[in-house]
């Protein structure tokens, strides 16, 4: 289940991409299959090991094109172990809402991106997430849980403060929002029949990709898609460097 649109991220073969807070690697896998040089990063030991195993399996199965590379690193998103301006693309999917100091994480994203690079940030959308919080404390109030709910304008403003230029955005996973509302309503730890039935629907959709659910989600995503995705660019050095030259030219006139 992918949240990021790789075409909007402009991910190409040979592109160096960080998958931050990679979890069990779903976005890293697709980027690797597309020929990228993938570095998957997570703080969780089990997540790092699982992602490493699956990327290795993809390589052994020959599912990645020649030239694609991968690396899996345990790291803190607030202190990334990478040089300045060292990567072309960054994905940070469903992770910033877990980090108390999200400003530090966004600053690190801007630091490691090359000038002209792009990041895709995905977070739970405000409306669907607010309903989940209202229905259940157990949904978010736990170790490593969600510490905030983002409004779209706030997320874009924080990316701007970090030195990035927010651009296009969209929503995703509308079919997942009612699942979580149902789960929160009956109890996130309860094995309720209705929750199991809805989960089977989501698995069927994920595996089969039927036209009926794909069409439904395209219609419903703008209304209550569970995730918000924002793409932001790091300004090119040439644009920054050109400003003083323009000022000198203007002063000389």
TrEMBL record:
GO BP terms, alphabetized: methylation
InterPro entries named among the record's database cross-references: Erg6_SMT_methyltransf, Methyltransf_11, SAM-dependent_MTases_sf
Keyword Transit peptide attributed: no
One of the Pfam families matching this protein, by short name: Methyltransf_11
Domain of life: Bacteria
Sorted UniProt keywords: Methyltransferase, Transferase
All residue ranges annotated as the Methyltransferase type domain in the record: 18-120
GO molecular function, one term: S-adenosylmethionine-dependent methyltransferase activity
Protein name in UniProt: Methyltransferase domain-containing protein
Species this protein is from: Geodermatophilus amargosae
């Amino acid at each position: 289940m992918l949240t990021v649109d790789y075409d909007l991220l402009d991910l190409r073969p040979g592109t160096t991409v960080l998958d931050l807070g990679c979890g069990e690697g779903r976005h890293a896998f697709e980027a690797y299959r597309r020929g990228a040089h993938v570095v998957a990063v997570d703080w969780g030991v089990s997540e790092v090991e699982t992602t490493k195993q699956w990327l290795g399996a993809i390589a052994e199965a020959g599912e990645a094109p020649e030239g694609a590379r991968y690396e899996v690193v345990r790291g803190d998103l607030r202190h990334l172990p990478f040089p300045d301006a060292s990567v072309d693309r960054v994905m940070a999917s469903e992770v910033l809402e877990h980090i108390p100091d999200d400003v530090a994480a966004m600053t690190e994203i801007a630091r490691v991106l090359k000038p002209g690079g792009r990041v895709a940030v995905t977070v739970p959308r405000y409306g669907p997430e607010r309903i989940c919080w209202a229905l259940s404390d157990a949904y978010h109030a736990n170790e490593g849980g969600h510490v905030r709910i983002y409004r779209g304008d706030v997320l874009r403003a924080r990316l701007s403060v970090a030195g990035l230029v927010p651009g296009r955005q969209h929503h995703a996973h509308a079919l997942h929002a009612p699942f979580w509302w149902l789960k929160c309503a009956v109890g996130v730890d309860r094995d309720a029949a209705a929750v199991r039935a809805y989960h089977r629907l989501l698995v069927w959709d994920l595996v089969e990709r039927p036209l009926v659910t794909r069409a439904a989600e395209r219609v419903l995503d703008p209304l209550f898609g569970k995730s918000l995705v924002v793409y932001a660019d790091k300004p090119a050095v040439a644009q920054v460097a050109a400003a003083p030259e323009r000022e000198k030219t203007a002063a000389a006139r």
